TrEMBL record, chain A:
Taxonomic source organism: Pedobacter xixiisoli
Domain ABC transporter: 2-231
PANTHER family: ABC TRANSPORTER ATP-BINDING PROTEIN ALBC-RELATED
One GO MF term attached to the UniProt entry: ATP hydrolysis activity
Origin: domain of life: Bacteria
Species classification: Bacteria, Pseudomonadati, Bacteroidota, Sphingobacteriia, Sphingobacteriales
PROSITE patterns for the chain: ABC_TRANSPORTER_1, ABC_TRANSPORTER_2
Record has Transcription regulation as a keyword: no
Keyword vocabulary terms for this entry: ATP-binding, Nucleotide-binding, Transport
Name of this chain's protein: ABC-2 type transport system ATP-binding protein
From TrEMBL, chain B:
Pfam families, alphabetized: ABC2_membrane_4 (PF12730), DUF3526 (PF12040)
InterPro entries for this protein: DUF3526
Alphabetical UniProt keywords: Membrane, Transmembrane, Transmembrane helix
Coiled coil: none
Lineage top rank: taxon: Bacteria
Species whose genome carries this gene: Pedobacter xixiisoli
Keyword Membrane included in the entry's annotation: yes
Ligase in keyword set: no
Protein name, per record: ABC-2 type transport system permease protein
Segments traversing the membrane: 128-148, 175-199, 205-226, 238-259, 422-439
């Protein structure tokens, strides 16, 4: 599970996060909505241990991010807006490489299965990543996250720029991961996607979580109205 | 994991091209050294027969005049050129590896050598040491300057950072792979040199190889430290190239100017002048003071008296020649001292600049440095003196040339048998490698 307690981040005089309190339980998918600069990516970067909070702390499975920035990485997987990998390695090689640096050794058939699970066709596995579309790269990114077998997943606008079919495929995988009991925090601009997959939705504005909604109780249109009114 | 780092490295054609270029440059450097060595060996080999021919011809001409015969006869003294000199020509292209001297005054002959084009001296030799000191670091910089920044700039860093619990190990694996690639090229080149030139597998080669490799490791560790600041690729490249320029040109050149100022070597000309005047003026002076000086130096020849009214005498003639050396002795000693001081200062500089250390210690092991030049100069003086002491009694007692066993007057060889202090050789490298490693580790602690 994932938790932030009075998380605060300041850049000089500008507060990117203001006392953010957030809790995402096991099997929950929490979608963070908000304009650019609302603090979504800052939250994710702090949770990843890539950025230090000015005050407050975040916890992954009860482990303090500020105190154990290396240890929490074992519990986390991350899928960025654009999964950037090594173009001179094939898809399966990239997956193997990133799995190995996380300490996992898979057989070729296991790696292939992971890629197939994300919907990446077998024909593409052995192709250099240089020839992959964004959607295909995102799928390799998901496979990397799956291979790590992390209990907490942080997704930073993962469907941005994907075509509708790729978005639907991606959403389905995220839903499955939630059903498997993983904790997922997803920053996104895609309200409809958020409503369709998330168990909870939060709207951020100027570094604050101004709305916290159980997504099942709202339609996408209602969330959109609320979002527009809030920001 | 290393398998993929290996694939990434070798699938980059630029990396392969750089390694190939390095191998090519190294091979050209070895070829340059081989040509130098062959020319040197050829001259030395011919000198033996030339000396015998010259002795035979002059003995036939001056059978009854030993004094005149020894005026002409030159005896060659070789500064042994180790095969390793092919890899580090050093000062051997400027200073002759063989010198022919008569038993007349030494100081005039000492600095007589082949005319050498100073333009070539300015450019230096494109030998293996040049490739090692100047080109290898450039390729190392090209391999390492963006080891972190490339991932940061291409966007893979964040994912790497999340996936890996130990990014330092990942960076070190990348550096190690590059060190391995460079070391393989380095060792292939040395192996080529060993086989092609026939360099013996001895301690000198082992030391030369070790200091060269430590120099390469130093550059890798320097790169590790610079990239640990996590600057952009452009910043890292700029800083490393500035280091390269400063270490190879700005600091050594500035230091050289300072050394020249502190230790001016004006005594070279002074010695020549003192010797010339010391000898030539004696023709116009009374013989007694010249002879007294000579008898004082060589009491064993005091029975060969020279009267003031004697028109010509080889005892007096060679005493005058000797006087030239005696009067130039102070300046000659000071000249050698100043050169030694300069070299000592350069050695001190080598303690803080691994490139200078590599050049100096490489030269020391190959017998091509200033220390060898000075040691050879000293040995030449001893050889000259030995020849004088052998021939003086024969000349002064007006022996016939036929009495001498000329076949024993072969070319003599000076072997530089000085041993290097391992502490002095390796400590500067080990100190800087350790220091930079520790400093970069401190910076790497902040890596996410």
């Amino acid at each position: 599970m994932l938790k932030t307690v009075n998380l605060h981040k300041k850049y000089n005089e500008y507060s990117a996060l203001k006392s953010l309190n957030l809790e995402v339980g096991k099997g929950e998918i929490f979608a963070l909505l908000g304009q650019n600069g609302a603090g979504k990516s800052t939250t994710i970067n702090i949770l990843l241990g890539l950025m230090k909070a000015t005050s407050g702390d975040a916890y992954i499975n009860g482990i303090s991010v500020s105190e154990h920035p290396q240890e929490i990485k074992q519990h986390l997987a991350y899928i960025p807006e654009t999964v950037l990998l090594y173009p001179n390695l094939t898809g399966i090689e990239n997956l193997d490489f990133f799995s190995k640096i996380a300490g996992f050794n898979y057989t070729k058939s296991e790696l292939s299965e992971l890629l197939l699970r994300t919907g990446l066709q077998e024909l593409a596995h052995e192709k250099d990543l240089g020839g992959y579309s964004k959607g295909m790269r995102q799928k390799v990114g998901i496979a990397i996250a799956l291979a790590k077998d992390a209990k907490v997943l942080l997704l930073d606008e993962p469907t941005s720029g994907l075509d509708p079919i790729a978005t639907a495929d991606f959403t389905e995988i995220v839903r499955q991961l939630g059903q498997e009991g993983r904790t997922i925090l997803m920053a996104t601009h895609d309200i409809f996607n958020a409503v369709s997959v998330a168990t909870n939705i939060g709207i951020m504005k100027q570094g604050e979580l101004v709305q916290h909604l159980p997504s099942k109780s709202f339609t996408a249109e209602e969330v959109q109205d609320l979002y527009l009114k809030t920001i | 994991m290393n398998n993929y780092l290996y694939k990434q490295f070798f699938r980059n054609r630029g990396n392969l091209a750089a390694l190939l270029l390095l191998w090519l440059a190294g091979t050209v450097g070895i070829y340059t050294g081989k040509r130098f060595l062959e020319r040197n060996e050829d001259i030395i080999a011919k000198s033996a027969s030339y000396q015998q021919q010259s002795i035979a011809k002059n003995v036939a001409l001056h059978q009854d005049n030993m004094g005149l015969l020894l005026y002409y006869l030159k005896f060659n003294f070789v500064n042994e050129t180790p095969k390793l000199a092919a890899l580090n020509i050093g000062m051997r292209d400027l200073n002759p590896s063989i010198q022919g001297v008569t038993i007349r005054n030494l100081e005039e002959q000492k600095h007589n050598s082949d005319f050498y084009n100073p333009a070539n001296a300015a450019a230096g030799n494109f030998d293996f040491s040049f490739v090692l000191v100047f080109l290898f670091p450039l390729v190392i910089i090209a391999f390492c300057y963006n080891l972190i920044s490339e991932d940061q700039e291409k966007g893979t860093w964040k994912l790497l950072s999340v996936q890996s619990g130990n990014l330092r190990r990942l960076i070190d694996a990348k550096i190690l792979l590059r060190l391995l690639a460079i070391s393989v090229v380095y060792l292939i080149l040395l192996l080529t040199a060993v086989i092609w030139i026939g360099i013996p597998l001895d301690t000198h080669l082992l030391i030369y190889t070790s200091i060269g490799w430590l120099y390469l490791v130093f550059w890798f560790v320097l790169c590790r430290w610079i990239i640990s600041f996590q600057g952009s690729s452009a910043q890292n490249a700029l800083v490393l190239v500035v280091c390269w320029v400063a270490m190879n040109f700005i600091i050594p050149m500035s230091a050289n100017l300072i050394f020249q100022k502190i230790y001016p070597v004006k005594e070279g000309l002074e010695a020549q002048m003192a010797q010339r005047e010391g000898y030539h003026n004696k023709w116009d002076e009374a013989k007694a003071p010249t002879m007294q000086q000579f008898y004082k130096a060589y009491p064993q020849f005091s029975q060969y008296k020279v009267g003031e009214n004697v028109g010509s005498s080889y005892v007096w003639y060679y005493a005058m020649q000797h006087a030239g050396d005696m009067e130039a002795a102070g300046a000659a000693k000071a000249y050698d001292q100043q050169l030694k001081h300069r070299n000592d200062a350069a050695i001190l500089l080598g303690y803080i600049l691994p490139n200078v250390q590599t050049q100096l210690m490489g030269g020391r092991e190959a017998g091509t440095g200033m220390e060898n030049y000075l040691a050879y100069g000293e040995a030449l003086q001893q050889f000259h003196e030995a020849q004088r002491l052998f021939f003086y009694p024969l000349i002064f007692s007006e022996q016939r040339a036929g009495l001498v066993d000329w076949s024993r007057q072969t070319v003599k060889v000076f072997s530089d048998s000085r041993k290097s202090d391992p502490l002095q050789l390796f400590l500067p490298y080990l100190f800087f490698i350790t220091l930079l490693f520790v400093l970069s580790n401190q910076k790497f602690k902040k890596l996410c």
